[in-house]
Design a protein that fits this description.
Elements (H helix, E strand, L loop, with lengths): L2 H25 L12 H36 L5 E10 L2 E8 L2 E8 L2 E8 L19 H20 L1
């Protein structure tokens, strides 16, 4: 079929349909009087309420997306890997006591990466109780481990 003929048939059918709809509107008057418009204040309040609800649902979804792991862990068993304590040592350097089940590790962090300084004594209490042995910087065990870790480094610098 010729494209021009197809366009003509399409336009003719649309015009006929428009004429039928216009005649139907003339013969069927609107039932009842025109309704008054609602108050502007109530409409604005309703629009802003719906906007606040949509924004709250969006922010709740974002929060759930970012924190779903935290919710899953709380229902299940406690995580085995924990950062028990961290201390900054200066610009981008720090010491961290890491616990995995009953093991304790003293780790140094720097811009070059992580370094295992020492394995600390095992925790005295089992993991099920939820009490982890934390080595405070003023405790004797922490001081001994730190002195042992620093001593080889200071001996190497004395040789140079």
């Amino acid at each position: 079929m010729n494209p021009r003929a197809f366009q003509f048939i399409f336009l003719f059918a649309g015009a006929v349909n428009f004429g039928v709809a216009a005649r139907a509107a003339e013969t069927n008057p609107v039932a009842g009087p025109a309704l008054p418009l609602p108050e502007a204040g109530a409409s604005v309040l309703r629009v802003f309420g719906a906007l606040a609800l949509v924004i709250a649902l969006f922010l709740g979804g974002v929060w759930l997306f970012r924190n779903w792991q935290r919710l899953v862990v709380q229902r299940g068993q406690a995580p085995k890997l924990n950062i028990l304590e961290s201390r900054p040592l200066g610009n981008r350097h720090g010491l961290h006591v890491i616990g995995y089940e009953r093991q304790r590790l003293l780790i140094a962090s720097s811009p070059n990466g992580l370094t295992l300084i020492s394995q600390l004594a095992a925790a005295d209490t089992p993991r099920e109780t939820g009490h982890a042995a934390v080595y405070h910087p003023s405790s004797e065990v922490f001081k001994q481990v730190l002195a042992r870790a620093i001593k080889p480094a200071s001996a190497e610098t004395a040789r140079s």
